[in-house]
């Protein structure tokens, strides 16, 4: 077995164990933390495939979702004690991800040299701009739908 | 570093299988949404393995990748809205009790 196969097996074990723990963990906070293993594993797979830029984008996209889920998990589970272990853990993870993202942003220029993704993405945006416009509409409609679901709270706030 | 494509594909399909089984077994709305997020992450892995394996990648694959990310983001927005609504109204997160599409 060559070294690259060992690496991918370790990463696959990390991602698969994370995927299993999402459903097997009893607390929502642990499920959300397990999901990070999947995201980190998938980013490592992209790095092994030579697509470091996609790995960075993946982290950027999913870090927002992950942070949001984490906030939901903490909000639903923590009490009003002076020290909350869950709150401390989630804050620690968010800070660590923030530092990792800053470091990744600093090194993004050197990472993108070996990847053909940026040029392909630029060609895709100019060629398939209608599809990107539809994605924009999808996100916009999701925001509008969310506001409609929470209209009572929006009224309260406004 | 060159890794065999079938390992990556196997990882992607295994993640999809875990997520589908979990969604079928779990009743918590948030955990089901986490499972959907897992499926989207697995589909990204599968798609990128195809993109990186091509000599001249087609831009449509990249468009599909962006579409998956857009769907994942839209899902997160919707989940948070549903969570706040249901939490504030004291509704159960058990999806087997969610029979009405409109309240």
Most extensive interface between two protein chains, with residue counts: A-B, 61 and 58 residues
Average residue pLDDT of chain B: 81
Q: What is the straight-line distance between the termini of chain A?
A: 62 Å
Report the total helices of chain B.
3
Poorly predicted regions of chain A = none
Main sheet properties of chain A: none
Describe the largest sheet of chain B: none
Order of helices and strands of chain B: HHH
Q: Give me the strand/helix succession of chain A.
A: HHHHHHHH
Low-confidence stretches of chain B: none
The percentage of residues in β strands of chain B lies in under 5%
How many strand elements of chain B? 0
Structural class of chain A comes to mainly alpha
Summarize the structure.
The complex is a heterodimer of chains A (158) and B (103). Chain A is 85% helix and 0% strand.
Give a description of the structure.
The complex is a heterodimer of chains A (158) and B (103). Chain A is globular, with a radius of gyration of 19 Å. In chain A, helix 1 runs antiparallel to helix 2 (28-48), helix 2 packs antiparallel against helix 3 (52-77) and helix 3 (52-77) runs antiparallel to helix 4. The model of chain A has no long low-confidence stretch (mean pLDDT 73). By secondary structure, chain A is an all-alpha fold. Chain A is 85% helix and 0% strand. The relative contact order of chain A is 0.08. Chain B has a domain at 27-97. The termini of chain B are far apart. Helix content of chain B is 74%, strand content 0%. In chain B, helix 1 (5-25) runs antiparallel to helix 2 (29-53) and helix 2 packs antiparallel against helix 3 (59-88). The radius of gyration of chain B is 17 Å and the shape is elongated. Chain B contains 3 helices and no strands. At the A-B interface, helix 1, helix 2, helix 3, helix 6 and helix 7 of A face helix 1, helix 2 and helix 3 of B.
Which short descriptors sum up this protein?
heterodimer; A: 158 residues; mainly alpha; 8 helices; 0% strand; B: 103 residues
């Amino acid at each position: 077995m060559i070294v690259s196969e060992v690496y991918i097996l370790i990463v696959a074990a990390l991602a698969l164990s994370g995927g299993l723990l999402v459903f097997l963990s009893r607390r929502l906070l642990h499920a959300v933390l397990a999901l990070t293993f999947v995201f980190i594993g998938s980013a490592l797979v992209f790095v092994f495939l030579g697509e470091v830029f996609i790995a960075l984008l993946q982290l950027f996209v999913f870090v927002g979702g992950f942070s949001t889920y984490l906030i939901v998990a903490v909000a639903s589970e923590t009490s009003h004690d002076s020290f909350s272990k869950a709150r401390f853990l989630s804050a620690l993870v968010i800070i660590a991800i923030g530092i990792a993202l800053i470091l990744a942003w600093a090194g993004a220029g050197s990472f993108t040299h070996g990847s053909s993704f940026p040029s392909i993405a630029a060609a895709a945006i100019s060629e398939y701009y209608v599809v990107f416009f539809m994605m924009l509409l999808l996100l916009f409609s999701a925001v509008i739908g969310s506001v409609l679901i929470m209209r009572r709270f929006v009224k309260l706030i406004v | 570093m060159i890794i065999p494509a079938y390992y990556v594909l196997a990882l992607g399909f295994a993640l999809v299988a875990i997520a589908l089984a979990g969604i079928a077994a779990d009743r918590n709305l948030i955990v089901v949404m986490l499972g959907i997020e897992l499926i989207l992450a697995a589909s990204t892995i599968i798609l990128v393995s195809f993109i990186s394996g091509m000599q001249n990648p087609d831009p449509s694959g990249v468009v599909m990748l962006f579409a998956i990310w857009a769907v994942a983001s839209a899902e997160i927005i919707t989940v948070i809205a549903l969570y706040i609504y249901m939490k504030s109204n004291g509704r159960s997160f058990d999806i087997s009790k969610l029979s009405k599409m409109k309240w």
